[in-house]
Automatic annotation (TrEMBL):
<dbReference type="Pfam" id="PF01464">
    <property type="entry name" value="SLT"/>
</dbReference>
<dbReference type="GO" id="GO:0008933">
    <property type="term" value="F:peptidoglycan lytic transglycosylase activity"/>
</dbReference>
<dbReference type="InterPro" id="IPR000189">
    <property type="entry name" value="Transglyc_AS"/>
</dbReference>
<dbReference type="GO" id="GO:0016020">
    <property type="term" value="C:membrane"/>
</dbReference>
<dbReference type="GO" id="GO:0000270">
    <property type="term" value="P:peptidoglycan metabolic process"/>
</dbReference>
<protein>
    <submittedName>
        <fullName>Lytic transglycosylase domain-containing protein</fullName>
    </submittedName>
</protein>
<comment type="similarity">
    <text>Belongs to the transglycosylase Slt family.</text>
</comment>
<dbReference type="InterPro" id="IPR023346">
    <property type="entry name" value="Lysozyme-like_dom_sf"/>
</dbReference>
<dbReference type="InterPro" id="IPR008258">
    <property type="entry name" value="Transglycosylase_SLT_dom_1"/>
</dbReference>
<feature type="domain" description="Transglycosylase SLT">
    <location>
        <begin position="44"/>
        <end position="154"/>
    </location>
</feature>
Length: 192
């Protein structure tokens, strides 16, 4: 009888240790994922995603994909900052949203970059009737390319959506943003 009770206690202790290990592992995994998928610059992301009607997770996903949250990132094509804004896009956007005395070096300032990036992706989402794939394709490859693709019946059977994205880089970009957006949603919940 004593042996049975000892075995039950031992089994119960092993069970408790297993539960503690599982809880610890889940918390550690969550912590690690939050380090890989951070919400840096949240004061600017929240402010400008709210102002331009964007989902915060989408903005974080774009920043992660574009610059890995490096505010000083400059691409080989000279796109700058967190959301990788080209000088010409920055100048155009700054004029539209009335940023006074804009200079392209301001694209390396997190607030200015996120403000312009949020305005621009919001404009693209509206331009493409809330079609996120088209907006992301235009963000990456340019609106001119998307316009050409929509007119090409081999690429767009209906002229409204893309059946395929002809640039592999852009196709991978759209997939990456959608994957990141899914992960952000799982980690931080649905955010408007």
């Amino acid at each position: 009888m004593k042996k049975k009770t000892r075995n039950r206690r031992k089994g119960f202790h092993i069970f408790l240790l297993l539960i503690v290990f599982i809880i610890f592992s889940v918390n550690l995994a969550g912590y690690a994922l939050r380090q890989i998928f951070p919400t840096k610059y949240s004061q600017y992301v929240e402010k400008y995603s709210d102002e331009y009607g964007l989902n915060k997770n989408l903005v974080y996903s774009i920043i992660k994909a574009e610059s890995g949250f490096n505010p000083n990132a400059i691409s080989p094509r000279k796109a700058k900052g967190l959301m990788q804004i080209m000088d010409s896009t920055g100048e155009w956007a700054a004029e539209k949203i009335k940023i006074k005395d804009f200079d392209s070096s301001m694209l390396l300032k997190p607030e200015t970059n996120i403000r312009i990036g949020c305005w621009y992706i919001s404009k693209l989402i509206n331009q493409y009737d809330q079609n996120i794939d088209l907006a992301l394709s235009a963000y990456n490859a340019g609106s001119g390319n998307v316009a050409k693709w929509l007119k090409d019946t081999d690429i767009s059977s209906d002229g409204i959506t893309l059946d395929r994205i002809p640039f592999k880089e852009t196709e991978n970009y759209v997939k990456k943003i959608k994957r990141y957006n899914y992960i952000y949603k799982k980690l931080y919940g649905e955010q408007k």
